[in-house]
From TrEMBL:
UniProt cofactor note: Binds 2 [4Fe-4S] clusters.
Catalytic activity of the protein: (R)-lactate + A = pyruvate + AH2; glycolate + A = glyoxylate + AH2
Keywords, sorted A to Z: 4Fe-4S, Electron transport, Iron, Iron-sulfur, Metal-binding, Repeat, Transport
Cofactor requirements of the protein: [4Fe-4S] cluster
Protein name: Glycolate oxidase iron-sulfur subunit
InterPro entries: 4Fe4S_Fe-S-bd, 4Fe4S_Fe_S_CS, Cys_rich_dom, Glc_ox_4Fe-4S
Function (record text): Component of a complex that catalyzes the oxidation of glycolate to glyoxylate.
Enzyme Commission designation: 1.1.99.14
Residue ranges of domain 4Fe-4S ferredoxin-type in the record: 13-36
Length: 386
């Protein structure tokens, strides 16, 4: 990767093939005694590849739609999700499934269509301040692109949780995608564009924390300082954003959520496990806090999942590009899930959440268990007396 980045070896198809097989989970970083930043080397190498390679018409089209539009302009993402809502509610989805139309497409697309959550009609958070009774702590909330459209219920629950713990929550109006998907795919120029837009928005008010509820987004936000290290006019502001960025589980833990009585609402004993978000674990080093929160809930038996510290195979869009390898990783993970047979698999990243939902379906366990974001699990199942 370093040789490609520095131009010491020529780029060819074999280099791209080798690097594309990497999940980008960055588990190599905490394992490396020398502290090599493999994630940044990978992004830079992929940047060289995208600059040097001759792209097919299909790849140019996909990259333009994805990186220049959907994940660059929030309104276009919202329109795409509105179309998905129409597909789900108009009867078109039912017809498509009955006629088995999706069988003409790659298997992974048919499987992913089956686990996509039903898009609810909700007023999206377009900015504003959500006050609490105390307003002791001022936080900015990074809504994310997928979280704010497909998982808007989780965003609403996140804001309500923060308000319940005395936070005044500010949602910057013109925030955009964090840029993680761009950066991981070698589109570093576009990643930096998004970073600059977000930085300008998030430094407009003085806050104690910048909160996110998506592990991949949080990791990228925390590394804005590194991303823009060669831009003196943004470096100090990028540093502020990086230093104030925190994931929702870490902030809830810091606010003392485990000090309050956490009761399972149905008083029925259930078993829960946790699948790590790779970037939350390997980049931001958040490992114990989600587990401690789950373990503090009465009538909840926490079961550690073997291999939870390894990637589930989602890895951004890896499960779409390298679906065969991704599904092998996922099926292996589900064998470990079967050993402990939990009622609920909890995670903290939208890609991981969809992947675990897919794993449950592939394993034929949809009647026995479900996958939830940690925030939704707390919101739906836990009573907090604070």
């Amino acid at each position: 990767m370093k040789a490609v980045r520095d131009g010491d070896i020529p780029f060819d198809g074999s280099v791209e093939e080798s690097l594309d097989m990497c999940l980008g989970c960055r588990a190599c970083e905490p394992a490396c005694p020398a502290g090599v930043e493999y994630g940044h080397l990978l992004e830079n190498a992929r940047g060289v590849i995208q600059r040097e390679k001759k792209k097919s018409t299909k790849e140019k089209f996909v990259r333009t739609v994805t990186f220049d539009h959907l994940f660059q302009e929030p309104k276009k993402m919202e329109k795409a999700v509105t179309l998905m809502q129409f597909y789900q509610r108009s009867g078109l989805q039912t017809i498509t499934r009955k006629m088995n139309i999706l069988s003409f497409f790659p298997n992974i697309l048919e499987e992913m269509e089956g686990v996509l959550p039903r898009v609810e009609s909700r007023e999206l958070m377009r900015g504003g301040i959500y006050r609490s009774k105390k307003n002791d702590i001022k936080v900015a909330f990074f809504t994310g692109c997928l979280m704010e459209t497909i998982f808007s219920k989780t965003n609403e629950a996140t804001v309500e949780l923060l308000r319940g713990f005395g936070c005044e929550v500010w949602v910057p109006e013109n925030q955009v995608c964090c840029g993680a998907l761009h950066g991981h795919s070698g589109e570093l120029k576009k990643a930096k564009e998004n970073a600059r837009k977000n930085i300008d928005n998030f430094v407009a008010r003085d806050v104690d924390y910048i909160v996110n509820n998506a592990g991949g987004c949080g990791a990228f936000l925390s590394e804005y300082e590194l991303l823009l290290k060669d831009e003196p006019e943004y470096l100090e502001k990028a540093k502020q954003v990086s230093e104030k960025s925190i994931d929702i589980t870490s902030l809830l833990f810091r606010l003392g959520i485990t000090d309050f009585p956490l009761n399972h609402r149905n008083n029925k004993k259930i078993s829960v496990t946790y699948q790590d978000s790779c970037h939350l674990r390997n980049v931001n080093h958040v490992i114990d806090k989600p587990r401690k929160i789950l373990g503090a809930i009465s009538n909840v038996e926490y079961k550690e999942l073997k291999g939870a510290d390894h990637c589930c195979g989602s890895a951004g869009i890896y499960n779409l590009i390298h679906s065969e390898m991704s599904m092998k990783i996922l099926d292996d993970r589900m064998e470990n899930v079967k050993e402990i047979n939990p009622h609920i698999i909890v995670t903290t990243n939208p890609g991981c959440l969809l992947q675990m939902k897919l794993g449950i379906e592939r394993a034929g366990l949809s009647k026995e268990m479900e996958a939830l974001h940690l925030v939704d699990f707390i919101n739906d199942y836990v009573s907090i007396k604070n």
